[in-house]
# Entry
Amino acid sequence: MTTGEKIRYLRSVEGSLRGLQRELTQQEVCALMRRELRATLSQAYLSQIESGARPHLSNRTRALLARFFNVHPGYLVDDPPGYHPELLSELRAQEDRLDLWLIAGAERFQRDQPLAQALLALARHADSRRCLLLLGKILETPALLDRLWNAMALEDSGALAAASLPGKDPRARRKE
# Structure
């Protein structure tokens, strides 16, 4: 979040805290600062900060805004790229997007119930990314897919028929 976005957010919160049921305008912020803190900031300067035209604040401006909004001055800086205020890493955010993609795939292939169920099981797993990476490694290893399929003793003929490729029976043993 940029400093400008934070100030816009703080104006909204401050308006609610003051019982206005709306955000404070930039003009109101400047007038309240003058009256309550005996210090001033022009509306034009505040507008430039919020729009990003002035990405850096002077120490005086940062301290004044922090006092008015009752926040730590360190809050009024741009967040670094990839920073999330929640305890959520970038990898976790990617995993969430992956899970949503898997769920959308399950909905798209709902007529193929075994496939849809497999996609949903992947999406529900705590580490769906790792599951897919493992599947990739399995597919890179010749004959491992068939060996695992047979070892799992998947006897549900409907699931096997739906999941097998045309002309291939995953239950058939390879002749070596």
In short: The radius of gyration is 29 Å. Residues 165-176 have pLDDT under 50 and may be disordered. Residues 90-108 form the longest helix (19 residues). The domain at 3-75 is CATH 1.10.260.40 (434 Repressor (Amino-terminal Domain)).
